[in-house]
Amino acid sequence: MTVTAFRPHPEPVEVARVTATAGELLEVLWGRASTAPASASQMRVLLTLEHQDGINLRTLCDALSSTPPSTSRLCDRLVAAGFVERVASAANRREVRLHLSSRGRAFLDDLRARREHQLQAVLALMPAGERAALLQGLEAFCRAAALQIHDNAQQPDDRTA
């Protein structure tokens, strides 16, 4: 994959193309760190629970844009692996809350460490000034993405209207 030089004030479409390429390269690097024994779908569950601990199955289905049976089966496998715990809600005995277990947290911590190791090897090949510019750009990207995600979460859901 080739990344070309851009004008001093690139358009979002140009930056999006390079960012997509970077994302694809990250997938390759992170593949070396392996997410086994969790599939990509199971990883989404673990990461969602890490940020929204104690949610119910319906909320998880919405977060994953998935159906209750599919999401329930994903959770069954993660419970069997010891990564997720189901706990009856104190407010409603029929409702089950989902929690990331200590084993699930340890798995994510270890995976992040392995991924960071892969990234550090690549970043070490970059000049310090370019690493600083990348850091500044990624911090701005994270702020903008978090804002967009938050704004989208605040909008009414068209499926229930």
Overview of this protein structure:
Helices cover 65% and strands 7% of the residues. The protein has six helices and three strands, in the order ααβααββαα. The chain has 161 residues and is mostly helical. It starts with 11 loop residues before the first helix and ends in a 7-residue tail after the last helix. A three-stranded antiparallel beta sheet has the order 1-3-2.
| Measured distance between first and last alpha carbons | 44 Å
pLDDT average, as an integer?
88
Find the count of extended strands (DSSP E, 2+ residues): 3
- Helix-and-strand structural type: mainly alpha
Helical coverage, percent range = 55-70%
- Low-confidence segments, ≥5 residues, pLDDT <50? none
Strand content: 5-15%
What does the largest sheet look like?
3 strands, antiparallel
Widest sheet: strand order?
1-3-2
Helix and strand run: HHEHHEEHH
Shape: globular
Mind telling me the C-alpha Rg? 19 Å
Counted by DSSP, the helix tally is 6
